[in-house]
Amino acid sequence: MPPHPLRPAAAPRLALVGTGPRGTGLLERIAANAPELLHGSPLDLHLVDPYPPGGGRIWRREQSPLLWMNSHAEDVTMYTDESVACAGPVRPGPSLAEWAALVRDGGPGAETIRLDPGTAADVRALHPRDFAGRRLQNAYLSWVYERAVAALPPGVAVHRHRRRAVRLDRAPDGRQRLWLDGATAPLLADVVVLCLGHLDAEPDPAQQALARFAAAHDLTYLPPQFTADSDLRALRPGEPVLVRGFGLAFTDLMVLLTEGRGGRFTPDGPGRLAYRPSGREPVLYVGSRRGVPYRAKIGYPWDGGPLTPPRFLGPAQAEQLRRLPRDPDLHRDLLPLVAKDLGYAHYHRLFTAHPERTRTPWHAFAETYAASPPGSAELDALVAASVPDPADRFDLAALDRPLALRTFPDPATLQEAVRTHVEADIARRQDPRHSPDFAVFLALLSLYGQLGSAGGPAWHGFFSYLASGPPAPRLRQLMALSRAGIVHFLGADPVFTTDREDGVFRAHAPSVPGHVVRARALVEARVPEPTVERSRDPLLRSLAAKATGRGLLAVDPADGRVRPGLYALGPFTDAGGTGAAFARPGTNAVAFRQNDATARAVLALMACGAGPDPTLSPFPGAPPRAPDRAPRGVLKRRTG
């Protein structure tokens, strides 16, 4: 395509904002697809991020070595495999565990990998089913980034900008103007892709009110934030701290306030730990809607088949949920179909791997199960007649809300009940006799791959509770801290309020009627919800006009397009399943599919001379520019 008459001929410019795990994954797909789609054409690729590439901010090396990933090393990959349904070429690569083995054993290319002594020691000690430290994951992500850059074709020139992008607008000729912090002139780009990852957010009105109360009464209030970034010095030794949230952010908080302050865990019998306090720990009173921590990670390998697509919550139902003008209601719209899919996976595994615990042939059970309405008496009767042991039956309500409708006479009884629940969960999730639990986990992955964020925040929380919980060793540490009196459980559905008369925070839960805990500190142990309007990232906040009613950036679900010349990937968009940048191998990960589609859309534009939006060109008679869509056929999906 001929250049604009008043603009010198130049390679098209693509700016990628964010080179953390999501940006690195997109870069890998750009490198994989570029030979086919660029046909040797030049491209200027500008990479914008103030943080080191690969790990970005969240997975940066400079954080406590005590913090772990919550996935086994063998279950973490940045690379496509044959399960990924994408149009671009599959370029397999090592998982975290395989990468560590390559480094340890001196495999091909290992001589180019430089690690500091501490990380090298972590690599030597890593087992495939270990939970790697986050600093080790940073080394893996950095290597993936360097490998992706090295794989780019010769015509692609890479320019790194170690600055924060703060604003995006249009140049007079329609190109994107990307303003960088501290720069005197904008970076001009034909196309910009935002891969901003997880971002901080301004407190919502309720959180602002709590912060004002804390300031007025000399209290400590920590709003939702990434725990590794929190300043925890105000949480004083021996003083009570109210904690709202029992997920992974709480796990990090627990570690940093105990081991991070000099405490030690020591063996105390088989599968049991004792805690030796340093005397510098605060006393944590933790509560959440469920009143219990997320379910433990499963501790044995899967020996069944690959991930299968949902049977009852299929693409048509998922599309209907996406088209709702509101967030789907978890209990009314989602859980009946989710429960039927999860139950099917549970019973298929039970009948095929543990047939001695069933009374009916699988084919007969499956036929009646499929024909029975979700949650019906017919379905209950089928299960009761076919599965004699109640412990082998799938009960989603009991799994989801183990403390529902339960009350306890005093806090001590509640503590013992929660410890019994957690210890039973740890034991069950390490026992392959309960492998239907693993089948349910895989079915959840499949459902999340289809629904993604289309199910709304409640669906994401439900998924995380069942499928993205902490490693079992972390829960054993929690049990030791509970027995040591460092952690206390508030129960389910706690209410956190302010006491203006005494000038403190209060918490009480219906689990122990009449029991109230007062404290001078309240911590929101949860990450900020994705939001455009309240984002602390000025570039994203400037795009608030493009936000949906849920406060997310509206994008084309096919390729992440926001508007001509602008694309976005990540948890701040309304495209499904964008939160996780890396994935378990063999799961047809949503992020990998999205990365590939966006890379191909952008590369197709670059190849056909992408430039300003012709409707915005101020030059009369200028030749028309390529449309902001790839040529027909370029984005054809590979479905097998």
From TrEMBL:
It comes from the Bacteria. InterPro entries: HpyO/CreE_NAD-binding (IPR038732), L-asp_N-monooxygenase_NS-form (IPR052189). This is FAD/NAD(P)-binding protein. Residues 615-625 have a biased composition (Pro residues). Residues 15-198 form the FAD-dependent urate hydroxylase HpyO/Asp monooxygenase CreE-like FAD/NAD(P)-binding domain. Pfam families: NAD_binding_9. Residues 613-640 are annotated as: Disordered.
